[in-house]
Amino acid sequence: MSKKPKHVAIIMDGNGRWAKKQGKKRYAGHNRGAKTVSKIVEQAAKEKIKYLTLFAFSTENWNRPKDEVNILMKLLVSSLKKEFVKLTENDIRLSSIGNIDSLPKLVKEELSYVKNKTKNNSGMVLTLALNYGGKEEIIDAVKSISDKVKNNIISPEKVDESTIIDHLYTRNLPPVDLLIRTSGEERISNFLLWHIAYAELYFTKTLWPDFTKEDLNEAFRNYYKRERRFGKTSEQLN
Ligand code: IPE
Ligand code: IPE
Ligand code: MG
User: Fold this and answer.
1) How far apart are alpha carbons 27 and 110 in whole angstroms?
2) CA-based, 20 to 30 A from 36: which of 12, 19, 56, 103?
């Protein structure tokens, strides 16, 4: 049986389809999805998960209609305002990954406010992936490593796994143990490429607004049944 996952990452997909199924506009699904975030974050903290990383907005999501992007950014600000008391109550520290500099000013301000207010919380680390792309993360790491090589700070032959990790947005996060994606899509969509190298993948057809605490626990139960071999044989593990 696997141990408790230390780092759980979630691709919270299916909000638009949830709304469509109800004959509502897509944003109704995103609003409902924000409520799910609140419940799942609390549940993960109760389950003593150390790191929870949520995919909230990808670098590719800028290609959506302008109205939808605007609504998503507003929802982010209002959710941060609403949730931040709950984060402290549950001893959760807020963090983020992605290209935060290019987000709207209001999002940046609210994000840095909540990060600052929760910085001394020592329970779960909640990381929001915002304007995040796994390829961009690797490109940025390669750029900063190349720069250090050019300036003789790093010698090329010394570049190893830890050099790469130290230059990723996710440098302070352990590898992902369990990656959950809701909505029935079975793809990674440019999320956490490096850190999911050995993650266990869990796909569920449930749309994110319908995802419950019980569904999260079901994902954990499924994970516990898996044998994580990391290249070894089953006999070596037992
Ligand atoms: C995921 O839900 C949330 C974001 C990308 C912001 P979607 O908006 O992709 O919902 P579907 O996949 O269209 O149903
Ligand atoms: C991934 O969902 C991004 C987030 C959940 C924020 P998408 O809905 O954007 O992914 P694709 O385009 O279906 O792969
Ligand atoms: Mg989607």
Assistant:
1) 21
2) 103
**By the 8 A CB rule, do 126 and 52 touch?**
yes
Q: What is the pTM of this model?
A: 0.97
Mutate to test the pocket of ligand 2, among 18, 61, 69, 179 (most ligand atoms within 8 A of CB): 61
From the CA of 19, give the closest atom in ligand 1. Answer: 14
Mean model confidence pLDDT for the chain: 97
Residue 226 tokens, joined: 């898996």
The predicted structure's pLDDT at residue 1? 67
Helix, strand, coil percentages (3-state) for the chain, rounded to 5, are 50, 15, 35
Give the separation between CA 193 and CA 157, rounded to whole angstroms. 24
Q: Ligand 3 centre from 14 Cα, in Å?
A: 5
- Express each pLDDT in 194-228 by its tens digit: 999 999 999 999 999 999 999 999 999 999 999 99
Give the Å distance between the CA of 155 and the centre of ligand 2. Answer: 38
pLDDT digits (tens, 9 = 90+) for 87-104: 999 999 999 999 999 999
Does the C-beta of 88 come closer than 6 Å to ligand 1?
A: no
Sequence ranges of the domains in the chain: 7-132+176-226
121 alpha carbon to ligand 2 midpoint, in Å?
A: 30
